[in-house]
Design a protein that fits this description.
Blueprint lengths: L1 H9 L3 H15 L3 H10 L3 H7 L1 E4 L13 H9 L5 E3 L4 H14 L7 E4 L12 H5 L4 H17 L4 E2 L23 H16 L11 E7 L18 H8 L1 H8 L4 E4 L3 E2 L2 E2 L4 H11 L5 E3 L4 H7 L5 H11 L4 E2 L3 H12 L4 H18 L13 H5 L3 H12 L3 E5 L11 E5 L25 H5 L4 E5 L11 H5 L11 H13 L3 E7 L18 H12 L4 E6 L7 H6 L2 E4 L7 H9 L64 E3 L3 E2 L3 E2 L5 E9 L5 E11 L10 E10 L4 E8 L6 E2 L5 E2 L3 E10 L2 E9 L1
Parallel strand pairs: 1-2, 1-10, 2-3, 3-4, 4-5, 5-6, 6-9, 12-13, 12-14, 14-15, 15-16, 19-27
Antiparallel strand pairs: 7-8, 11-16, 17-20, 18-20, 20-23, 21-22, 21-26, 24-25, 26-27
Helix pairs in contact: 3-16, 4-15, 4-16, 8-9, 8-18, 9-11, 13-14, 14-15, 18-24, 21-22
Length: about 750
């Protein structure tokens, strides 16, 4: 300080004073490593283990709550035995828990507060599979940022998102939570979400929170589409087809990673040192911490690999830092240390990684950074956020069919809105919508009445057996209707007679997809299908507004219904976003990010398949790879989606037909809007390595551009192709690109492209 004052007297100009002030502050503030070294030198073993302990409140439900006791929780926080909290909601409650941690515990270490809010906090956006279908990275980043703003206003500083598992089996319910089947697209979306949650630079203010990429790893490849099931695949396939989105999130700077429930080739992910140490930390350079999924250390016992004591040791040694709600570390690590089954370095490494993230978040500087009690009224579910959610939702809807240009509807028409989803408030949100107040959502009926004359009938029950409803709906219940199916159908047909057009609001309910919601039958529920057939039989034009959290098998619907608009679960502004598109105020632009199959027997089905020794031709042919009863082609291919206008593609032009590893090839195509409406088109780039040292896919997405083109306008869309886009993991697991011929494809979806070739030398 004396030196600083002397220099201040000698150098009085403003620049010098500013420089010296910054220098003084820098010298005064310890580096993160020095700060944490000092902190840990004063912590007991019990307090270090406490930082590894994540417990659950009861304000949300995301797993089996095994040990909840609010009085005990407060005592444990005072003793420094808790490092983080999940499922506490409300800034006042969180502020009080944080106060206990930083004012009443010995070490005064702040807590992390996390929650699953995958597609919005109280302003709910479309489910992630729907968001991906917008192919709009800016919108995806914006939605993540708004979720962070709202959650941080309510005291939370940690979100268990993005979920980046590649899913190629729609029977798996959690396909709803991710971006679909493609690793390139999944990686781009993962980076956008991390930016949205954490900000750039990360954690710069109290609206930026800690993101957590999940579920590491390969969870979306569970056998038979059953949640929590076995994953068994080669490392080459894992690296080429599944791991990239996680790596992209790491490259974007995500601060935490959640291990997955599944085992991988015989080793549970939570105790998999190859996954957590070799790949994640040593190869990818991850600097954050790893948290388990809900009580997943306990699952190691269920896999038949020992008791809680052994599972805790395995997980800690493998690189799992924080135990979510299984209490395995809490009850076992001190004993394991005394027995010599672990050493203090294992505990210290995990504790250090957690403390470092808390330091980066700014919690040591200001433990109440996210506890401003004036923010909720201003920042949560406000008009600006709701308007943004409405606009974003309109870009996620996928127009699957539109015979005779039935859509958009005429606002002067009389519309019969029929179906159990037409007047269901909470079901608009989809799975993982529980942070929101479900009663704030508007029904589709209420929204459509602002556009046209609408009459409504429920039409049927949502399920064949309504006793299933108590399980499926959880907090998102349908209103009970005691009438028989015949009575409901008579009312629906009576309403239909009075209308010009029928809009059938049908499909899955919110909790038919998401965690623990696998299905073996991907048709719309049977009572709804019987209703739809009766409506089609009236001869009136029928628009199917399809609610779903996954690709469905809707072959009959495709063949018999006039128009199909897939709306996923659009969120709190669904009631307004859907009619925005139905009545033409917005031109639909969504495109599928997961292939839709003809039937369940085709699953798994995805566009970037490898060629086989005896490829199928048009239809069944003996000694060819195909089915006796259906073709190999899907119902709807990856990248598919119609518009109210038409887009014509010119021929591909490339600046050269030969490139080296250091060159950049530029491919350009002219897109003309030849219809009578302005609209967005998502132009897709695919590449195929024609001859390689190992079997390669028939095509892979390597670029996309969503462009707005006015009617009558032509725009040139260009893609840059570098050698990095041509790389893959070969048979020896080397990441290489190989010389030879490549096919470059550009088109409106994966099945509708034109091709040009180039050579890599």
């Amino acid at each position: 300080m004396k030196i600083y004052l002397l220099l201040q007297k000698r150098y009085m100009n403003k620049f010098s004073l500013l420089f010296l002030s910054v220098l003084f502050v820098a010298c005064k503030q310890p580096s993160p490593d020095k700060f944490i070294d000092d902190l840990m030198s004063r912590m007991s073993v019990e307090e270090k283990i406490g930082q590894l302990h994540l417990i659950s409140g009861t304000d949300a439900i995301s797993g089996e709550n095994l040990y909840s006791d609010s009085n005990k929780t407060v005592m444990e926080i005072r003793k420094g035995k808790v490092g983080a909290f999940i499922n506490a909601k409300g800034v006042n409650k969180i502020r009080e828990l944080q106060r206990i941690a930083v004012e009443e515990s010995r070490m005064k270490i702040p807590l992390l507060f996390g929650m699953d809010f995958l597609h919005g906090y109280e302003t709910i956006f479309p489910i992630p599979l729907g968001m991906a279908s917008s192919w709009n990275l800016k919108n995806i980043e914006t939605a993540a940022h708004i979720a962070a703003v709202e959650a941080s206003a309510d005291g939370l500083n940690w979100v268990y998102s993005p979920m980046v598992d590649i899913a190629r089996d729609p029977r798996w319910g959690r396909i709803a939570e991710g971006a679909g089947e493609d690793p390139f697209l999944g990686g781009e979306i993962a980076k956008a979400q991390v930016r949205g949650y954490q900000g750039e630079p990360a954690y710069a203010d109290n609206t930026n929170i800690l993101a957590c990429v999940k579920h590491f790893a390969l969870y979306g490849a569970s056998e038979a589409g059953r949640d929590y099931s076995v994953v068994d695949m080669s490392e080459q396939r894992a690296r080429n087809d599944y791991l990239y989105p996680y790596q992209a999130a790491i490259e974007a700077g995500v601060g935490s990673v959640m291990s997955s429930f599944n085992e991988i080739n015989g080793m549970p992910a939570t105790a998999n040192s190859w996954l957590l140490d070799d790949v994640l930390r040593k190869e990818w350079g991850f600097q954050g911490f790893v948290v388990t999924d809900y009580a997943s250390i306990n699952d190691i016992q269920r896999f038949g690999m020992g008791n809680s004591y052994g599972a805790a040791i395995m997980s800690l040694k493998a690189g799992t830092d924080m135990d979510m709600e299984s209490y395995a570390y809490y009850f076992n690590l001190q004993k394991a240390l005394s027995n010599g089954d672990i050493n203090i370095r294992h505990i210290d490494d995990a504790c250090r990684r957690i403390l470092k993230i808390k330091y980066k978040l700014g919690l040591f500087k200001d433990p109440y950074k996210y506890c401003d009690t004036t923010r909720p009224a201003r920042d949560i579910y406000n008009a600006k956020h709701r308007e943004t959610a409405r606009k974003i939702a309109t870009e996620t809807f996928v127009l699957l069919k539109n015979d005779s240009n039935l859509l958009p509807l005429k606002k002067q028409s009389t519309i019969a809105l029929i179906g159990p989803h037409g007047n269901n408030r909470p079901n608009m949100l989809g799975s993982w919508g529980w942070p929101a107040n479900i009663n704030k959502a508007t029904t589709l009926l209420e929204g459509m009445k602002e556009y046209a004359s609408v009459i409504y009938a429920r039409g049927c029950q949502p399920y064949e057996d309504m006793t299933q409803e108590d399980y499926l709906s959880l907090t998102k219940d349908f209103e009970k209707d005691p009438r028989s199916e015949a009575e409901l159908l008579r009312e629906a047909l009576s309403v239909a007679k009075k209308a010009d057009v029928i809009v059938a609001a049908l499909g899955e309910s919110a909790e038919m997809s998401g965690e623990s919601s696998s299905r073996s039958d991907l048709n719309i529920p049977a009572p709804q299908k019987r209703l739809l057939k009766a409506l089609v039989a009236t001869g009136k034009p029928v628009v199917l507004v399809l609610f779903t959290g996954r690709p469905l098998t809707i072959l009959w619907e495709k063949d018999n219904v006039d128009a199909i608009l897939n709306v996923w679960f659009p969120g709190t502004e669904a009631a307004f976003a859907i009619p925005d598109v139905l009545f033409g105020d917005v031109n639909p632009s969504g495109k599928l990010t997961a292939t839709w199959s003809l039937n369940v027997g085709q699953i798994p089905i995805y566009y970037n398949i490898k060629n086989v020794s005896k490829p199928m031709q048009e239809w069944f042919h003996k000694f060819r790879s195909g089915y006796l009863d259906v073709p190999n082609e899907p119902l709807y291919p990856f990248g598919y989606g119609l518009s109210y206008t038409t887009f014509d593609y010119g021929e591909i032009a490339i600046n050269d037909t030969v490139m080296s590893e250091k060159d950049t090839l530029v491919a350009t195509v002219a897109i003309t809007n030849s219809g009578d409406r302005d609209g967005y088109e998502t132009v897709q780039l695919y590449i195929r390595d024609v001859v390689a040292s190992t079997v390669r896919p028939v095509k892979e997405l390597k670029g996309f551009e969503k462009v707005f083109i006015k009617k009558g306008e032509t725009k040139n869309v260009s893609f840059k192709i570098t050698s990095s886009l041509l790389k893959f993991y070969n048979y020896q697991l080397q990441y290489v690109c190989e010389q030879g011929e490549f096919e470059l494809m550009i088109g409106r979806n994966s099945a509708d492209t034109q091709t040009i070739t180039f050579t890599l030398i």
